[in-house]
Amino acid sequence: MDETALRSTHDRPGDAPGERDALIPEDGVSVRKVSRTYHSRREGARHALDDISVQIAPGSWVTLLGANGAGKSTLLAMLAGIDRPDAGTVCVFGNDTTSSEGRRAIRKHLGIVFQSPSLDRLLTVRENLVLHGVIGGLSRASALSRATELAARLGFADRIRSRVGALSGGLMRRVDLARAVMLRPRLLLLDEPSTGLDPQARLELMALLYDARTELPGLIVVMSSHLIEEADRADRVIMMSSGRIVADDTPDALRQSAGAAVFRLQTDDRDTAYAIIGRDGVLQHHADRAIVSVQSQEAAGIVAGRLAAARLPFEYGPPLLSDVYLQRAGGVLISQDTA
Amino acid sequence: MTTPEPKMLGPCTALLVREWQRLMRQPSRLIATLGTASLLWFVMASGLAGLTVYGRDYGNYLLPGMASMVVVFASIFGAISLIEDRQEGFLQGVMAGPAPRSALVVSKLLGGASIACVQAALLLAAGPMLGLPAGAAGYASALVALGALGIGISGIALALAWRVNSIAGFHGVMNLVLMPMWLLSGAIFPPDQSAGWLAVVQMCNPVGWPTQAMQGSLGVGEPPTSAHWIGTAGCAAIGLCAAWMTIGRAGTIPRRA
Fold it and tell me: Using N-to-C axis directions, what is the helix angle for A297-309 and A270-277, rounded to 10°?
């Protein structure tokens, strides 16, 4: 999707073209034409980000959705000032993260949950939270009070004296989330925060993340994920593939863009599938998976009849974000049931 | 509500306390460091019981050298904790936070050095029982040399650990760089009896100056000269510079193993 389309999708009614973008850099996030290439002897040059542009307004929850290697973590690293772009600019709350002053300025407004918890496993939960509070600028008394408050809010008050190394994966994630919001950030970056958690723990973590927004009004949440269920809660989903943005809209709008309904097939015989469907549906194929999107119930009836006649097994239903991803990126995303 | 800008002292103290908390919760670190040095001293002092150096028996001569070994070992453990912090994700949480980068450098350096010095001082506390001919002033000078050695070796070890991705890899670096520095410091044989090329290497060795200053202060070597103290200060300066140039000025978080 080009930058104009991206802007027009998210402009609020009444905004003059470009007016909202002009406001975003001061209180939001602006990524403009950012590229980043990694070089290694084994793999050569790999384009982690390729001419990416994104604007995020205050109070938004944005999910970066994509398969492994899509560039999600690199984009998060750019927003955090951990990595620097080869080209383009990244502005967070009006601070350019490519300058050391800019990075220093945004760090006090930033909370990050990495793929693995940033906790000291030898320290207790309370010691970890107080430590991160104090090194972030809180007094010891304020850090203690904030740690106690967060432990109650996130449901681990009874384990506050336990060593982090003794906690379950789900509980450790909650503590890590508490660490990330200790300093009441304005921007919360979450890099696949549910990695390694079972489906129940994932749901609980997502619910807690949702709660964090009520405590911190105006908080911008940018979360990367490869799980479609996690993207469903977001205000906006940015789909990425091979370092590029392939779709950017609300989850509902993205699903609607995929057609009235879809048929999901498991076949690696692309030619036969094309021949069966003809012009009544649009087929997208990746490895042994294919989806056929149809624009009306009438077309759905015709395609269903043809697939049944050809004895090709299929699933039928409304479009999911994974269908949109397959359409736009030609890749497969997974559901948390299979993760 | 806005969190105030973190100053240097608060984060630095908090991270320094953490280094000590980690040590107390890993008693094996303490046992390994002090146990190895004590055992090595006992074996070598017994095996070379007839040898005299600077008019003292070899066991006396060896004790300050073992203290410097404790500093080297403890600094190595401190540096390994940096690799662990990186592998476990703790480091990226700190470095992405608002604390000044200098707080991380200073706390790691002072944490490693203070832990190393306290352990070495515990070993030196056996000196009066073993007949080490030094008074309170001598011990005080030796502690100053120990402090400088701790900062120097911790800084060098941290700078090396910053560039190494795995603990196994760091052991290789340790064997190649840090252990030879200790062996050539005069800890186990007097430097003034070395062959020509070795004497030059020893003079360039930052571990040698504080070790010899410590030996001299405790009466088992040449009395320390101003050259020894300049060399000792130089050792600490090298450690500080090495740590600052690598960790303090690093723009990005090093990649994990």
Answer: 130
CB-CB under 8 Å, A100 with B6: no
* R_g (Cα) of chain B, nearest Å: 19
Total CB pairs under 8 A between chain A and B:
100
ipTM here: 0.83
Write out chain A residues lying below 8 Å of B14, CB-based: 130-131, 134-135
> For the structural domain made of A3-254, what CATH number should be given?
3.40.50.300
Please tell me which of the candidates A123, A130, A184 has its beta carbon nearest to residue B3.
Answer: A184
Cα–Cα distance, A118 to A115 (Å, whole number): 9
- Chain A residue numbers touching B3 (CB-CB < 8 A): 108, 136-138, 183-184
Find residues 122-181 of chain A whose CB sits inside 8 Å of chain B.
122-123, 127, 130-132, 134-139, 179
Q: Is A269 on the interface with B (CB under 8 A)?
A: no
Domain ranges for chain B, please list them.
25-248
Work out the burial of residue A233: count CB atoms within 10 Å of its CB; fewer than 13 is exposed, 13-18 middle, 19 or more buried.
Answer: middle
Alpha-carbon distances, residue A65 vs A52, A223, A251, A320 (angstroms): 14, 8, 11, 13
Q: Is the dihedral of CA A191, A192, A195, A200 positive or negative?
A: positive
Written out in words, the top-level CATH class of the domain with range A259-318 is alpha beta
pLDDT tens across the length of chain B (257 residues): 555 666 788 899 999 999 999 999 988 888 888 898 999 999 999 998 888 888 888 899 999 999 999 998 888 888 888 899 988 889 888 888 888 888 888 898 999 899 999 999 999 988 888 888 888 999 999 999 999 999 999 999 999 998 888 888 888 888 888 888 998 888 888 877 777 788 888 888 999 999 999 999 998 888 899 999 999 999 999 999 999 888 877 655 554 43
- Of A306, A202, A274, A240, nearest to A50 (Cα)? A240
pTM score of the predicted model: 0.82
Intervals of CATH 3.30.70.860 along chain A = 259-318
> A97 vs chain B: nearest CA distance in angstroms?
12
Contact yes or no for A154/A207 (Cβ under 8 A)? no
User: Nearest-CA residue of chain B relative to A180?
Assistant: B93
Tokens 């390729």, residue located: A50
